[in-house]
């Protein structure tokens, strides 16, 4: 699909400097721009590329003043980075704008879905499934019995949503994600083996949540595992049974959260963080990457390390830790000197 510079400027509420009729059909980094592509300049350290890029159109800030001749058509906006992000979102909507029902699919007789739906080939909708308007379900998606999917959701290829799961509006579930699998519930019996504890709850995901590729969210033993509105989950995260994650919390890849832990609002959790079960993490908490959390955290704490310390204490301790080899050598030298003095 092609767009003119003038059309793009209209979407971004910007002004064209150059040829308004020039067309672009793809996006590119400024240093890799080619004819027919659209790029942007937001970071000053990339300014040199604006003079040699082969891109046809570039988005720049209104206050950008070129020091040399520029061949590329410019679209001037208040904030080039935000404008390009808006354009990416628009481009993604156009790219994902599929509708209709492909064949073969399996839709149970009592499953229902709304208007403007897309069902990709080999999708499966179980008994009593309810799906809203403008939902896109890509090929090989499984949606189990009694699931509810709100409006404007996108379920990408190969995602699996187990029975009784509830998704709000504008939820994105990426490929390979599994929502509603059994929690890790086993109890040792008299013979030393493990007996399975039935997991009879479900998963509830509120509005505007993103679930990354390969992420797993376990159903509750009783009640619900709850992901509150606006939560952003990276790829390959494990969320155990009965966990609750508060509104607008963001969690990076390979984090694992054990059962029944409650995480507050607006938290930022780095990659490869491990969080034990049955603890409470307050609002606006920041957890640095690769930290191990084994205790409750209060509102606004920032922690790092394993076991995690306050961020400032960790940094102070690290100064001493990295100096340990030198300190050990000093002690050894002092002991040798003491022995020689005897």
TrEMBL record:
It comes from Leeuwenhoekiella polynyae. Keywords: Acyltransferase, Lipid A biosynthesis, Lipid biosynthesis, Lipid metabolism, Repeat, Transferase. Homotrimer. The active site is at 241 (proton acceptor). Gene3D superfamilies: Hexapeptide repeat proteins, MurE/MurF, N-terminal domain. One of its GO terms (biological process) is lipid A biosynthetic process. Its EC number is 2.3.1.191. This is UDP-3-O-acylglucosamine N-acyltransferase. PANTHER family: UDP-3-O-ACYLGLUCOSAMINE N-ACYLTRANSFERASE (PTHR43378), UDP-3-O-ACYLGLUCOSAMINE N-ACYLTRANSFERASE 1, MITOCHONDRIAL-RELATED (PTHR43378:SF2). The lineage of its organism: Bacteria, Pseudomonadati, Bacteroidota, Flavobacteriia, Flavobacteriales. Belongs to the transferase hexapeptide repeat family. LpxD subfamily.
């Amino acid at each position: 699909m092609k767009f003119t510079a003038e059309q793009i400027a209209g979407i971004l509420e910007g002004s064209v400097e150059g040829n308004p009729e020039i067309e672009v059909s793809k996006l590119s980094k400024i240093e890799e721009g080619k004819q027919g592509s659209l790029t942007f300049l937001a970071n000053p350290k990339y300014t040199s590329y604006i003079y040699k890029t082969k891109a046809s159109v570039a988005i720049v800030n209104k206050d950008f003043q070129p020091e040399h001749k520029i061949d590329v058509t410019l679209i001037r906006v208040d904030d080039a980075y935000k404008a390009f992000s808006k354009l990416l979102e628009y481009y993604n909507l156009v790219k994902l704008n599929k509708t209709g029902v492909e064949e073969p699919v399996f839709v149970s007789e009592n499953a229902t879905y709304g208007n403007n739906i897309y069902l990709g080939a080999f999708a499966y909708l179980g008994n009593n499934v309810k799906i809203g308007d403008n939902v896109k379900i890509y090929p090989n998606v499984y949606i189990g019995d009694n699931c509810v999917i709100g409006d404007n959701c996108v379920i990408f290829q190969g995602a699996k949503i187990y029975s009784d799961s509830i998704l709000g509006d504008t939820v994105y579930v990426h490929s390979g994600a599994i929502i509603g699998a059994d929690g890790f519930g086993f109890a040792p019996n008299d013979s030393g083996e493990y007996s399975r504890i039935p997991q009879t709850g479900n998963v509830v995901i509120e509005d505007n949540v993103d679930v990354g590729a390969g992420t797993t969210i376990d159903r509750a033993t009783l009640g619900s595992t709850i992901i509150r509105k606006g939560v952003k989950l990276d790829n390959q995260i494990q969320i155990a049974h009965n966990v609750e994650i508060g509104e607008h919390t963001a969690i990076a890849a390979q984090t694992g959260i054990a059962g029944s832990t409650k995480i507050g609002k607006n938290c930022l959790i780095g990659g490869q963080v491990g969080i034990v079960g049955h603890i409470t993490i307050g609002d606006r908490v920041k957890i640095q990457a690769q930290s191990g959390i084994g205790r409750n955290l209060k509102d606004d704490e920032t922690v790092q390390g394993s076991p995690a310390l306050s961020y400032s204490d960790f940094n102070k301790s690290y100064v001493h830790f990295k100096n340990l080899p030198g300190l050990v050598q000093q002690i050894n030298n002092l002991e040798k000197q003491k022995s020689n003095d005897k």
